Amino acid sequence: MLATTPPIRDGSSAPLLSISHVTLVYDENSQEAACALDDVSLDVCQGERLCIVGANGSGKSTLASVLCGLIAPDAGNVRLLDYDVCRDGKPDLEAYRLARRGIGLVFQNPEDQIVTRIVADDVAFGPENLGVQPHEIKRRVRQELHRMALDGFAQADPQRLSGGEQQRVAIAGALAMEPEVLVLDEPGALLDARGRQRIMQTMDELRRAGIAVVHVTHFMEEALSADRVIVLEKGRIVLEGTPDEVFSHRKALAAARLEQPFIARLCARLSADGLDLHWTCDQSELTTQLTTIAAAHGKPLTKLRARPHVPPTTLKSPISRPLASTWETEAALSAATSPLISIRHVSFSYGSKGAAFALEDISLEIPAGDNLAIIGQNGSGKSTLLRLICALDMPDKGQILVDGLDTNHRGRRRKEREALAQARTRVGYVTQRPERQLFADSVEEDVAFGPTNQGLSRQELGDRVDGALELCGLLDKRFCSPFELSGGQQRMVAIAGVLAMHPQVLVLDEPTAGLDHASRTQLHALLAGLNKSGITIVQATHSMDDAARAKHVMVLDRSHVLAQGVPSKVFRRSTKDRLVACGLNLPQTVLFAEVLEASGAIAPGSLGNPLSLDELAGAIEKGLGLLPGSSERGEDEATWRSK
Questions:
Q1: How does residue 163 score in pLDDT terms, banded at 50, 70 and 90?
Q2: Cβ distance 168 to 189 under 8 Å?
Q3: Helix crossing, 119-129 with 163-175: angle to 10°?
Q4: Phi and psi for 144 in degrees, rounded to 5?
Q5: DSSP letters of 424-456?
Q6: Mean pLDDT highest for which of 251-255, 401-405, 469-473, 632-636?
Q7: Domain 17-255 CATH (choose: 3.40.50.1980, 3.40.50.300, 3.40.190.10, 3.20.20.70)
């Protein structure tokens, strides 16, 4: 048995967490054994903010679980908060139990962490198990509910909250334990812009208080404020250092399926176009450099190299399959009955009669072939609206028509049941947590389940499954268990299963949440290709950059429609205050354009509202007098409403 009595802290700089030559293998006895961690050594010191980044399946969550004492490695040594919990791969269970009392963890999926039916009780659960006095528990609960902006949710049922609100409950519960180390696994994946900003501020507060923070994230911008960043690839640390040091390795990051932060990519793009810039990932430094160039405008400038025209990324449809052509025919037929989806004065509430509306007086028309992004703060009603469109819930008031079929039926009559069933076949739904849609032993079986229930012939069933697997890049995974795949691959399996049923409308709830850069790029290409073939896309997202890719944007605020319109009109600097007030913001490109004009480097208003990095780079070059043309885009004006 290892020693479980910790030595007295002497204020030295000894690390709080230390792992040495740790290796962990999943399914060690099977032929499909996967090395999740491979000879990893790492220290985490008091008051340090460490950020762990890596592609899906790189070992980030596994490393976080080892650091917080949830998993013991197969080999190596682990020391947590002065306890030697594992030596040479042999765990000491009592040492683990004692060490975990001082380590807080926020899971990637907040529902896995919620144990009660009242928010305040859930936040109190950890301190109660630590034996904290009741009066102190009450103080901590009030403090952390306030910190996470949950004061008004103290008596709410956490199971009825949105995913983002549940995440804030989980964070509040971890903080209430007053840990020496806090480990957060993708804490901002389901949060709106305001929620992510609040978490970033909280991590800074904890660091100043001497609490170590280990932060796993796919948001490269979040890693910029860390003390140290490590990059995992296939279970090994391939890069380690300060944010500047790590993110300067563009090729190594690309090899690890990651991208540089936005400012670094913009700097590299402008440099490639001929501007004399030193690489940086710091917004202030890039602004200063561009201001210097603007001040020297009268002097000879490096001649800009002409950028070759690059067509938009498209996804090649498998022409050998009948999949795409069938969808195009169906979409063409449904176009005559536009709008494909009609939502008329819909209201919906959870719970008993008289409960507050999750959606109130919502009206919306979605034409066939549209690509609609629905944005809004956590709890604004996005997921609820998607469930209503899919006829998984029925509105309390109003009407929803899908391809002319009324979904507001409770199945009392045969014709009503048939109409409801037909409406549901028109819409494919990918939930916020697509891994919960998976159940079969192999990817192929999972994808085949839906079309099998449609009574297809064996030949047509095989064609649909093959076509969906090819579209989603899963042909080489068809015989794998879906539960052995990474989060990004599981999402693609769920999408493939929906696509194999040939829906007219594809509805997705936070489709890019928790995905790495390569997986997001693949998903963007897939959705663009499907939309081009005539499939109507409706997605709820917290990513303003993803929403800017859509044809239309709908903004929800506290169960009401705040705005509808094309992205170029919704995401304008003149609308920033209204977006920020409801927990949102503008895309990164528009925000930096605002910063750059405010610095005086470029005349106010000259950059417009660029919605992509290409548009922003062109607008900056034009604003510096280096390129002709305009970056402004847009069609009709957005419609903004006030309650």
A1: confident
A2: no
A3: 30
A4: -80, -30
A5: HHHEEEE-SSGGGG--SSSHHHHHHHHHHTTT-
A6: 251-255
A7: 3.40.50.300
